[in-house]
Specification:
Elements: E1 3-8, H1 15-27, E2 30-36, H2 47-57, E3 64-69, H3 73-79, E4 84-88, H4 92-108, E5 113-117, H5 128-136, H6 147-161
Parallel strand pairs: 1-2, 1-4, 2-3, 4-5
Bound molecules: 4'-phosphopantetheine.
The site of 4'-phosphopantetheine has 9 residues, from strand 1 and helix 4.
Length: about 160
């Protein structure tokens, strides 16, 4: 039974995340999406909201579980019997941080491998940060996120303006 952890902030989930996740399900029997609570990053969506958005997106994907975590990622991975951490790599600009994180995680636990997966090329320019900015400025985010995430963003940002 091969298990991978797909960790991230997912604030919010994008089509790029779903593409990487779908690719990971082809390699692993079980993939746990581990949403970092990351309160220090002041996420737009609470951890519970991010979990809810992800669960809705993967409700038809039987091998995917969604959870929130804090603490060290390698500890979480070990507790859940995972052999690998999956991270999406969009461009060279992602590489330096990802490389550093992968090597640090390997130093912390050499039994857990980090695997990088490239999203579909038409998704490589999507990021949660830019999607939030476009939504805040009233732009169309429909091509970049699932419909229920678009609705949640509009509701959240509308609520913030009041
Ligand atoms: O989507 P993000 O914000 O790029 O995800 C970063 C994340 C959550 C994967 C990273 O910050 C993380 O692993 N946090 C957990 C704490 C930890 O283990 N830190 C050491 C990593 S080298």
């Amino acid at each position: 039974m091969r298990t991978a952890i797909y960790p991230g902030s997912f604030d919010p989930l994008t089509n790029g995340h779903l593409d990487v996740l779908h690719r990971a399900t082809k390699l692993f029997h079980r993939v746990i999406v581990a949403i970092a609570k990351n309160e220090s990053k002041h996420p737009l969506f609470t951890a519970a909201e991010r979990v809810g958005l992800l669960r809705e997106a993967v409700s038809q994907w039987p091998s995917v579980e969604v959870d929130a975590f804090d603490g060290l990622l390698v500890d979480y991975a070990r507790r859940h019997g995972a052999q690998a951490i999956v991270r999406g790599l969009r461009a060279v600009s992602d590489f330096e941080f990802e490389f550093q994180m992968a090597l640090m995680n390997r130093n912390l636990d050499e039994n857990i491998e980090t695997i990088f997966m490239m999203p579909k090329d038409s998704y490589t320019f999507i990021s949660s940060r830019i999607v939030k900015e476009i939504a805040r400025l009233g732009g169309n985010i429909r091509p970049f996120v699932p419909g229920h995430v678009e609705a949640a963003l509009i509701k959240k940002l509308g609520g913030q303006k009041k």
